[in-house]
Design brief:
Blueprint lengths: L1 E5 L21 H9 L1 H9 L8 H16 L9 H6 L1 H8 L27 H15 L12 E9 L5 E11 L5 E7 L9 H19 L5 E6 L4 E5 L3 H24 L31 H6 L4 E5 L3
Parallel strand pairs: 4-5
Antiparallel strand pairs: 1-7, 2-3, 3-4, 5-6
Length: about 300
């Protein structure tokens, strides 16, 4: 039998956080998780199950770091050579993060190139990151850009109380006040049929900026460094209003799932990249008990409690 219980949202909050207790929020990635698979959302957001790092993901982090630091340089020094010089110090910091160095412990040895499953050597991996950084210069001239923000947190609380928050790779503001939201991707541009999925994240940022600044972004720009292409889009107010309703519907579904503990798995082709197959019912696994205490500490006010005999 399952009963409803009201949980103090301040549970688990440290004393110095008393003035600003934690509460659940929605980000572009977590909204996408729930749309893809509600159980994946639970594992990542509530259970916070560990996930393996991948060479591709760490390379993306490294390239983003270099492009962020690039704009710390004077405009005249924002050249390919200047950007590549930033690669080593950025890597020196990144490799100290847990789980990163281990990715290269079984690096490719001599003759391993014929094994498609063999991990890359560090040298080859860094070279591939450098190639992505170089390709950026075929798409933009950073000497002519002065961003207002880089890796900037944007957030807003909607009238119904939903907190939206996320980090924008780059925010440009023209002299006339026009906004351009830029996001770097280290993969290739998706086919036209998948463009709307790619733009979901950008519309999220555009909505938050519109609600906080009162300005609809003039351009949303996705830069794909994998193939040197870019996807641009210009939203309007009506579209952002519709998108806001979409987010509210997603959030309502998340709240229902949290209140019942019922997060359904959704088996798709993406399951092949999931780290949680061992505890997923679609693969014969059993999810761990719903982490009520962890959810309460994260600010969820209403949680399921399983009564025991």
């Amino acid at each position: 039998m399952t009963a409803m219980v009201e949980t103090d949202v301040s549970t688990g909050v440290q004393p110095d956080e008393a003035q600003a207790p934690r509460r659940p929020s929605l980000s572009p990635s977590r909204a996408a998780d729930f749309k893809t698979c509600p159980l994946l959302y639970r594992f990542r957001t509530i259970d916070r199950l560990p996930e393996r790092k991948s060479l591709a993901a760490v390379r993306g982090t490294l390239v983003h770091s270099v492009l962020e630091r690039l704009y710390d340089l004077p405009a005249a020094q924002r050249t390919v050579a200047g950007a590549l010089e930033l690669l080593e110090p950025a890597w020196a910091e990144l490799r100290e993060e847990p789980g990163v160095a281990e990715l290269f412990e079984a690096a490719q040895g001599e003759g391993a190139e014929s094994d498609v499953n063999a991990p890359e050597s560090l040298q080859a991996w860094l070279a591939s990151a450098g190639a992505l950084v170089e390709r950026y210069f075929t798409l933009e001239d950073p000497r002519r850009i002065e961003p207002e923000g880089r890796e900037e947190l944007v957030e807003v609380t909607l009238p119904d109380g939903l907190l939206l928050r996320g980090y924008v790779d780059r925010l440009d503001v023209a002299r006339n006040g026009a906004l351009r939201v830029v996001d770097y991707k280290t993969g290739s541009m998706p086919r036209e049929a998948f463009e709307s999925k790619a733009l979901f994240q950008m519309k999220f940022y555009a909505l938050v900026l519109w609600r906080t600044r009162g300005v609809v972004a003039a351009q949303l720009k996705l830069i794909y460094l994998g193939d040197g292409d870019a996807l641009t889009y210009a939203p309007d107010e009506a579209e952002l209003l519709r998108f806001e309703r979409t987010l509210l519907a997603i959030w309502a579904a998340i709240e229902r799932a949290v209140s019942t503990g019922d997060f359904r798995p959704n088996k798709t082709r993406l399951c092949g990249w999931c780290d949680h197959q061992a505890v997923c019912p679609e693969f014969g696994g059993t999810p761990p008990p719903f982490p009520t205490e962890a959810a309460a500490a994260a600010g969820w006010p209403t949680l399921p409690v399983v009564e025991r005999d």
